[in-house]
Amino acid sequence: MKEYAGRCFEDFTAGQVIEHPHGRTVTQADNIWFTLLTNNSNPIHFDAHYAAHTEFGRPLVNSAFTIALVTGLSVSDMSQNAVNLGWDEVRLPHPLFEGDTVYARSEVLALRESRSRPQQGVMTFRSSGYTQHGVVVVDFKRTVLVYRRGHLPSATSRPVMQERP
Q1: CA distance 19 to 103
Q2: What is the Cα–Cα distance from 41 to 50, expressed in whole angstroms?
Q3: pLDDT of residue 1
Q4: Given CA atoms 45, 75, 127, 146 in this order, what sign does their dihedral have?
Q5: Which segments of the chain are extended strands (E)?
Q6: Mean pLDDT of all residues in 70-87
Q7: Per-residue b/e over 59-69, b at no fewer than 16 CB within 10 Å?
Q8: Residue 102 β-bridge partners
Q9: What is the Cα–Cα distance from 4 to 93, expressed in whole angstroms?
Q10: Structure confidence by residue, pLDDT tens digits, 33-59
Q11: Matching InterPro entries, A to Z (predicted)?
């Protein structure tokens, strides 16, 4: 059985829309750990008493986590074989809360051959993350450098499992 190795530059077309297959429920631990890991001192992410006195009434999920999560949900379909060049036009139109499940979709906006790297192409796409209620919580453009078919880095560096005795 052949393993899925991700899409290459030739596998994308402008206007192509991809609904990413997995959702992810955000936990309180996710929110607190990410907030502490990134040294974000805003109590709206980790102090429930403080957050209860805001217009939201409860902790908000760290927006950098929201961006990272939707990026991650898209990787197997969009950038398994790519290198990030940048994020643009990041918008957070609605807050994300602990306990929400996030889903994602992406649309290919533009493709072009790389002028400096003929073994790769440049792709720009828009990704959106939305909750179990269909509410969009993040929307952004992302540009990546994608390998062309036949130019993927070799997988031969992966160790081979030895047979059991």
Answers
A1: 8
A2: 13
A3: 46
A4: positive
A5: 17-19, 24-25, 82-91, 101-113, 120-131, 136-147
A6: 96
A7: bbbbbebbbeb
A8: 24, 131
A9: 34
A10: 999 999 999 999 999 999 999 999 999
A11: HotDog_dom_sf, MC_hydratase, MCH/BMMD
Q: Please check the confidence at residue 80 and state whether its pLDDT lies above 70.
A: yes
CATH T-level fold of 9-147: Thiol Ester Dehydrase; Chain A (3.10.129)
Retrieve residue 135's tokens. 């509410």
Residue 156 has pLDDT above 60, yes or no: no
Q: Is the pLDDT of residue 154 over 90?
A: no
**CB 97 within 8 Å of CB 58:** yes
Q: How confident is the model at residue 164 (pLDDT cuts 50, 70, 90)?
A: confident
Amino acid residing at 4: Y
CB atoms within 10 A of CB 35: 22
Q: Mean pLDDT across the stretch 120-144?
A: 98
Does residue 138 contact residue 91 with C-beta atoms inside 8 Å? yes
Report the alpha-carbon distance of residue 126 to residue 111 in Å, rounded.
12
Q: How many CA atoms lie within 13 A of 162 on its CB side?
A: 2
pLDDT of residue 122: 98
